[in-house]
């Protein structure tokens, strides 16, 4: 006579307590059975939203930018307290290179992912290709940062300086501040810059803020990312609705979370596999679309 392990396994909707007690028994609610195709549709929706949001190359760029800003803040505090070290300054150079590397990955990997999902001639793919091109043609921070990556590769590092400045505060007191800068004359002297970047640097003809460049770069990339989201809005919305549909069908009681359960067909006996229904992915996607619409307005 076959035992439970020999029975065919199938997917069900169900729920578990929202907070599982460690080392103690807990209730597992098993509800309606669903087909493998239905479960696969959920997986496809979840993978799409994960790729587009929580594990996106734009998200990686945002994290590298935040780390750069944190390094700037550390140096600012150390400068104010007269505790600045060479290692702190060196960390800024590392974070600059990290942002520039993440910029290239954002452009290359996002374009590749869209091509793989929608086709290289799709509206989604074409729209993303046009967005960084617009930023390059119209925004100095983006085109400078793009080619600063090449400069860093060839020269070994970005030749930034930490510059001390004095000024009067609103109360009339003298304040010491610092700024991380690069000198356009140094950059021009030892590198063959792009035909649009060289005139930019010649016009500057002196020192300018690295932090301002990184801020402008992120604004350009955020615009390109938001345009990418909006052109995919029907696909994103469909994925959100699909995830929320399964969560609704699971009908979890108060204090319970919706899940998929793989169990022997026609029985709630073990062995079972429990997989959460990630409604937070749909929430993240909805918020991101709202923010993208605001930026595009």
Structure in words:
The protein has helices spanning 36-54, 57-80, 86-118, 123-138, 140-155, 184-189, 197-204, 210-231, 233-250, 279-296, and strands at 9-17, 29-34, 161-168, 174-183, 207-209, 256-264, 273-276. Helix 1 crosses helix 10 (279-296), helix 2 packs antiparallel against helix 3 (86-118) and helix 9 (233-250) packs antiparallel against helix 10 (279-296). It has a domain at 1-34 and 232-297. Strands 2-1-6-7 form a four-stranded antiparallel beta sheet. By secondary structure, the chain is of the alpha+beta class.
Low-confidence spans: 1-6
The helix/strand order is EEHHHHHEEHHEHHEEH
User: Rg, please?
Assistant: 26 Å
| Broad shape | elongated
Mean pLDDT over the residues: 89
SSE blueprint:
Elements: E1 9-17, E2 29-34, H1 36-54, H2 57-80, H3 86-118, H4 123-138, H5 140-155, E3 161-168, E4 174-183, H6 184-189, H7 197-204, E5 207-209, H8 210-231, H9 233-250, E6 256-264, E7 273-276, H10 279-296
Antiparallel strand pairs: 1-2, 1-6, 3-4, 4-5, 6-7
Helix pairs in contact: 1-9, 1-10, 2-3, 2-8, 3-4, 3-5, 4-5, 4-8, 5-8, 8-10, 9-10
């Amino acid at each position: 006579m076959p035992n439970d392990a020999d029975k065919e396994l199938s997917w069900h909707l169900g729920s578990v307590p929202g907070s599982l007690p460690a080392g103690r028994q807990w209730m597992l609610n098993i509800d309606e059975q669903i087909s493998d195709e239905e479960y696969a549709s959920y997986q496809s929706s979840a993978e799409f939203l994960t790729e587009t949001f929580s594990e996106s190359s734009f998200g990686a760029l945002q994290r590298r930018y935040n780390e750069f800003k944190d390094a700037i803040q550390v140096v600012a505090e150390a400068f104010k307290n007269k505790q600045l070290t060479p290692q702190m300054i060196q960390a800024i150079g590392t974070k600059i290179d990290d942002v520039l590397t993440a910029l290239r990955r954002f452009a290359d990997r996002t374009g590749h992912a869209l091509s793989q999902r929608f086709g290289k001639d799709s509206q989604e793919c074409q729209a993303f290709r046009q967005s960084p091109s617009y930023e390059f043609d119209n925004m100095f921070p983006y085109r400078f940062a793009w080619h600063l990556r090449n400069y860093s590769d060839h020269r070994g590092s970005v030749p930034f300086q930490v510059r001390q400045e004095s000024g009067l505060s609103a109360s009339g007191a003298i304040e010491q501040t610092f700024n991380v800068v690069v000198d356009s004359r140094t950059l021009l002297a030892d590198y063959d810059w792009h035909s649009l970047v060289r005139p930019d640097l010649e016009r500057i003809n002196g020192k300018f803020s690295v932090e301002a460049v990184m801020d402008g770069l992120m604004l350009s990339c955020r615009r390109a990312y938001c345009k990418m989201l909006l052109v995919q809005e029907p696909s994103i919305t469909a994925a959100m609705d699909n995830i929320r549909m399964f969560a609704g069908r699971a009908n979890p009681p108060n204090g319970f979370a919706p899940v998929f359960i793989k169990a022997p067909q026609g029985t709630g006996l073990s062995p079972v596999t429990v997989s959460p229904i990630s409604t937070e992915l749909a929430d993240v996607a909805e918020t991101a679309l709202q923010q993208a619409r605001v930026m595009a307005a």
